[in-house]
Amino acid sequence: MPANRNALIRYTTIDKCLRNRYRQWTLEDLIDACSDALYEYEGIDKGVSRRTVQMDIQMMRSEKLGYNAPIIVRDKKYYTYEDPDYSITQLPLSEQDLNKLGDAVEILKQFQGFSHFKEMTGLIQKLENKIYTENTQSRPIIHIERNENLKGLEHLNGLYQVILKRQVIKVEYQSFKAKRSNRIYFNPYLLKEFNNRWFLIGKQKKGDMIMNLALDRIHAFEVMEQMSFKDDPSFEPHSYYEDVIGVTINSGLLPRTVKLFINNDNKPYVLTKPLHWSQKLIEEQDDGIIISIKVVPNYELERVILGFGPSVDVLSPPSLRKKIGRLMNRASELYEGEIE
What we know:
Layout: H1 5-19, H2 27-42, H3 50-61, E1 71-74, E2 78-81, H4 95-108, H5 115-118, H6 121-134, H7 156-165, E3 169-173, E4 182-194, E5 197-204, E6 211-214, E7 218-223, H8 237-240, E8 256-263, H9 267-272, E9 280-285, E10 288-295, H10 299-307, E11 312-316, H11 318-334
Helix pairs in contact: 1-2, 1-3, 4-6
């Protein structure tokens, strides 16, 4: 695709003219048509030069843009397509185009739970069929993790709609610690994904604290048409989650500098994929590195650290070091005895 928008307008205008077989087109006719199109679409009233349109025709004939347009001149005066069925808008897809289109389709398919993407289902299927029929021998070059069996995904579209319409909902919610579900009247503000799980962020009807509800713990929800929605204009997702990993906000705690020793085996992973945007390299040692992140300690931070197992050592703060140490000891105890 041409980088210059004006050039694209000229190419499509010339194409439209040459496809019209009921009229003969001189170079001057094409110049006038391009000038009219630029004025209509871009408000440019200075016209188009003869040389510009001649260069456009030469470019369309070439392979540079993939057009290879069969433009000929009849009677040394009239421009037309030698192939009456040709159009630059009906070009076959190249292998590179197919690969890029396949990648885009895979990404689009991740969001089909939302209604505005559901409307694209037919288009996505058409694109997949086009890719398959034109390039059946190739395999995908991108694969995105998907778990369509995750509980709660069926709520995504409905919750998206209530956030969009600013509606209060009644939620039947059961946390992992609760024996039965509770009824919550909720003002929903945001849908957030973390580690392949979705969360609904907002406030209870009679509360002032931002809280999150895991979608896989929502049994059902109902729109409360008669209740007025209570917004929080101060809630801004980027700044709200700036100092945490994940979704858990421990109210009242300030960000703390967490220092971690990472051994050489895991050093490349941490350097190329930082644990948090605030990550800094403090020191390089023979057996590893020391990094720091400035975050509010929470459940997700603990899970990230524990995920490294014996490859990480929490240096500070002392409270986090003790907690991770206790959890590591419990894990070690599980493997000390024989399995019966």
